[in-house]
Amino acid sequence: MANKNVLDLREIAAGGQKFEGQIVTVQGWIRNHRKQKNIGFMEFFDGTHFTPIQIVYDENVENFAGVQAIRNGSAISATGKLVPSRSGALEMQAECVVLEGDCTEDYPLQPKRHSLEFLRDIAYLRPRTRVFQAVFRVRSIAAQAVHNYFQSRGYVYVHTPLITGNDAEGAGNTFTVTTAEPGKPYKPEDDFFGHPTALAVTGQLEAETYALAYKRVYTFGPTFRAENSNTKTHAAEFWMIEPEVCFCDLDGLMDIEEDFLKSVVREVLDKAMPELEFLQQFAKSSLIEKLEKLTTSHVARVTHKEAIDILQHADKEFEHPAVQGEDLFREHEKYLTDEHFGSPVFVYDWPKDIKAFYMYQNDDGKTVAAVDMLVPGSGELMGGSQRETRYDLLTSRMDELGISKEQMSWYVNLRRFGGCTHSGFGMGFERLIMYLTDIENIRDVIPYPRTPGNCEF
User: Fold this and answer.
1) Euclidean distance between the first and final Cα of the chain, in Å?
2) Which residue, 422, 356, 406, 357, is CA-closest to 165?
3) CB within 8 Å of 343: residues ≥ 6 apart
4) Which helix (H) or strand (E) holds 42?
5) pLDDT digits (tens, 9 = 90+) for 136-158
6) Residues 158-181: what's their mean pLDDT?
7) What is the C-alpha to C-alpha distance for residues 322 and 90, in angstroms, rounded to an integer?
8) What CA–CA distance (Å, rounded) separates 380 from 334?
9) In the sheet that 163-164 helps form, which strands lie side by side, from edge to edge?
10) What is the tens place of the pLDDT at every residue in 301-323?
11) How far is CA 421 from CA 153, 156, 368, in A?
12) Across the strands, what pairs with 386?
């Protein structure tokens, strides 16, 4: 049966009752097919809208026996009248169902709840499940929200290199890029670039060069770290958001971080409510309440020293005691956000010895103008700093740490050629998606996770 009125489920959902009684065609896949003797029910989705529709057919449908033989997972085109279901949502009374792509009996996605671990082994199929339809729709909306925020405020989007001769000096272990044949000694002079190169762990330093031409820039792309870690929060390939802003100090940076996060969360709440409702039910959490609360929260600000003082005087025993001059553990972050402040927290002015060489050195000689943003339920979500702009202090710090000024001459020269106060932060995009979805494992918020021993797809 020919019908030119082909609609996406997104269009049907947006049009609502105006489509009631119309004969339309939909094209997509069957998630579940329940058959009875003289009737059948198909749970149909096409990926354009989270909520599926039900296709109902009876013996009057063209090729009834053939339609009943259609299996779960098959691609179909269905034509019929849209009518209200018992729930009030529209469903289709099918007149014709055409099999576009058959699905074999061993299709692994059967109508039951599969574990996330099982679905990781079939990552090429998991986008068809409801949980990953929700997760990756949220990911898509959040990615656009990131661009919307920066583009609407005059930032320039910069594509920084994925192959680099710089490892950001301490940002993480790197993957070497080489054309050397496996099993043969690696000789840099024979390599493609003529010197050691690696997959980038950050785009920050290159972004700084563009910030000093455009005033406000951001990067948003894949980065790589070769940490042999199998925790829920580590992946070898992940995406980073890294803005750099000129004429901006640490206080101004915290203002931007807060505004940015609230804006992205608000846009996801506005555009992905069906997905968030499903994920909240899936995780048995208060996801929506958490996100709503964040958008209206006051974000506390404390120095690292003040944070350690709070932890040391807390009426609570920690597995790892809080120590001045040392990093915070996850349990410390959770106490500060969930118990002491009951809100997100900026912890700033960190000990110099546990932070990167490029961070602005405070007058006390012990701390740098660095900041971490901690959020309830997730801990650290963003990290940033005011950058060191004083040539002598930057180079002396590089000397202390054994970092080559010659190799980094292009970065050092920014302090000689019209440098100015500037700041920036970085946020792992997958960590944001985990926060937005209450999915606990980074492997489940990136389409094809790259972790130790796992690079099948």
Assistant:
1) 39
2) 406
3) 297, 298, 299, 300, 337, 376
4) strand 39-45
5) 999 999 999 999 999 999 999 99
6) 79
7) 57
8) 9
9) 163-164, 197-199, 176-177
10) 999 999 999 999 999 999 999 99
11) 19, 18, 14
12) 423
Residue the block writes with tokens 């997760």: 135
Cα radius of gyration rounded to whole Å, the chain: 27
Give the tokens for residue 75: 């691609």
3-state secondary structure of 280: helix
Nearest-CA neighbor of 360 among 404, 395, 393, 328?
Answer: 393
Q: Which two tokens stand for residue 313?
A: 């005087």
Contact 187, 210 (CB under 8 A): no
The residues, any chain, with a CB within 8 Å of residue 140's CB and separated by 6 or more, are none
CA–CA dist 451, 226 (Å, integer):
9
CA of residue 347 relative to chain centroid, distance: 23
Query: What pairing do the DSSP bridges indicate for beta strands 53-58 and 90-101?
Result: parallel
Rounded-to-10 torsion of CA 338, 341, 345, 350: -100
Torsion of CA 309, 315, 321, 325, to 10 degrees: -10
What is Dmax (Cα atoms) for the chain? 84
CB 170 within 8 A of CB 356: yes
Closest CA relative to residue 78, chosen from 125, 127, 24, 122: 24
Phi first, then psi, for residue 417 (nearest 5°) are -110, 70
Query: Checking phi first, is residue 75 left (phi over 0); if not, alpha (psi -120 to 50) or beta?
Result: beta
Helix (H, G, I), strand (E, B) or coil at 253: helix
